Amino acid sequence: MTSNPIHGIDALVRGVHLITRRELRPFILVPLLINLVLFIIISGIMISQLGGLSDYIGSLLSHTPVDTANMSWWEAIMAKGAAWAASIFRWLAWIISFLVLFLFFLVYGYLFAVITNIIAAPFNGILAEKVEELLTGKTPPAEPLLQMIWRTLGRELRKLGYFIFWGLIILLVATVTSWTIIIPAVLTAVWGAWSMAIQYVDYPLDNHQRPFDELKSVLRRRKLTSLTFGGTVMLAKMVPILNIFVMPAAVAGGTALWIERLRQEGDPGTDSFPTQQQSNSSSKSIT
């Protein structure tokens, strides 16, 4: 099976359909409540930064020098580089303004995703288990609840370390190339998509207690599918209000994506692959 970006988009849509199933509704209540509380807190913090952002964009569009006196060193580099580029190409100011706004909401969505995923990890693991049971008729190996909670929290910290390590490298590259604006925007977008794919396809593999490196290998099999799934989730998380409901849909969609398109013979749970007739029946009942 080839890597198809449409499959990545379809996975999130499939996740939305799955969480409307009566069997799964009890398992999405706690993640939704966690998302609601964190949405209020994080959105309040980000809104407090809009004043400085609007002043910066206004200075770009009016072609007046930007005041870097109160900025950190890397903010000053970005501001001066962007202003220099905009002074050469007047029309570039509008593109730069759009990319700055995009980066702002990308950071907002990424911050929201990382914090909510750490707190809601055990509940997401249970939801992924129930989705797998719904799609295949079988569940991952059973384990005590307390053991599962500690293991999933440890897994989230493992992923967080991975995100921070590569995130710092991308930040360094983005800072050096900040005068272009385009390079940081593209790097950040691709990294955000990859991170979201790792985050939400990981739950079913973690339920089977598979190593983190195996997860990355699974995602590389269908790079375009994985990136478009993660990118679609990332874009949805950038939208206020909508991002409250994205996490359970992404967990369900990531689980379905792994079961139906990513895993191969020899992967965990392949003995419980649904037959083609079961898959068609499941798809009809969802639609």
Describe this structure in words.
78% of the residues lie in helices and 0% in strands. It contains eleven helices and no strands. Residues 272-287 have low confidence and may be disordered.
What's the main sheet like?
none
- Outline type: elongated
Radius of gyration: 21 Å
Number of strands: 0
What series of H and E elements makes up the topology? HHHHHHHHHHH
Give the helix/strand class: mainly alpha
What is the residue-averaged pLDDT? 78
Number of helices: 11
β-strand percent reads: under 5%
In percent, how helical is the residue content? Answer: over 70%
Taking pLDDT < 50 over at least 5 consecutive residues as the criterion, the unreliable ranges are: 272-287
Q: Between the first and last Cα atoms, what is the distance in angstroms?
A: 24 Å
Sum up the structure in keywords:
mainly alpha
